[in-house]
Every structure is written in structure tokens, then in C-alpha cells.
Write a structure and sequence with these properties.
Elements: E1 2-3, E2 6-7, H1 30-46, E3 60-67, E4 79-86, H2 87-95, H3 104-111, H4 115-127
Antiparallel strand pairs: 1-2, 3-4
């Protein structure tokens, strides 16, 4: 399904073949949450008696990002990339659509990602091979 530039693809796994995961408390943005709800309704109508649980910790997404000054007239300053990231990384990056600078607490409250996992996510985005975020202080 596609809505507002979001393309949703779902792989359903049966619990008998996978370990048990504790449900996460990630806060999914409304535009994506609507698609998840629509898919859940579709799936449960098609497969009665089943239960569908989202495991965001196992999910990934592809984001289209533009780096640089969006007001720049020079093309070399506006670098467009596609980023394949975990959903947790995507949730963090999604926050920067509306802000250029966020505190750790802002990110934690807005994403609902558990503290231990959030630390790993932020480290991967700010200290990894491809540094997508700037950490202050460095």
C-alpha cells in the first residue's frame, strides 16, 4: 500500500518458527501508523482467528534524504541519498524533518525507544561509518 509517499511492504512470520520478543513501546508516526492499522484490519479479516503483532525491532525502512542547505542554489550542497536503516533509526531520523537540533530527551520522548536501544541507535547514526547526525559535543 502507498500513502503520502510511504510504501508499505509486510512479511508475516509465525511465532512457532521465531523466538518470542517482548513488545516494544516505539511511537510510530501517524502517517505510518494509519497504514499499519489498515494492513492489520485487512490481515485479520482475511485470516480469522489469528493475532498480528508488530515487531518493530525486526523491521527496516528505506528513507529518501537530502543533505545540505535546502535553500541553496548550488546543487553540490544538496546531496540526495537513500538510506536503508532499522525502523528505530528511521524513527529518529524522521524527527529531523521538523527540527534541525534535538536533545537526547526530546528523541527519547518522541520515539518511545527504550534507553539502552536508543543509545545504540544514536551511536550508529552519529558515530558510525556514515555519520548521518552530528553529535554535540563531538
Amino acid at each position: 500500500e502507498e500513502s503520502d509517499g510511504v510504501d508499505l511492504g509486510v512479511t508475516v512470520l509465525t511465532t512457532g518458527y521465531w523466538p518470542t520478543y517482548t513488545p516494544d513501546s516505539a511511537i510510530i508516526p501517524p502517517g505510518i501508523s494509519v497504514l499499519l492499522d489498515q494492513y492489520k484490519t485487512y490481515y485479520l479479516n482475511k485470516h480469522s482467528g489469528r493475532k498480528l503483532t508488530w515487531q518493530h525491532s525486526l523491521s527496516f525502512c528505506t528513507l529518501k534524504a537530502t543533505f545540505g542547505d535546502s535553500n541553496s542554489t548550488e546543487k553540490k550542497l544538496d546531496l540526495k541519498k537513500e538510506l536503508n536503516v532499522s525502523v528505530y533509526q528511521g524513527l529518529v531520523l524522521f524527527l529531523f524533518n521538523n527540527s534541525n537540533k534535538l536533545s537526547y530527551n526530546d528523541v527519547k520522548e518522541s520515539t518511545g525507544i527504550e534507553e539502552e536501544e536508543l543509545g545504540r541507535v544514536l551511536q550508529s547514526l552519529a558515530c558510525g561509518k556514515a555519520r548521518v547526525l552530528k553529535k554535540v559535543p563531538p
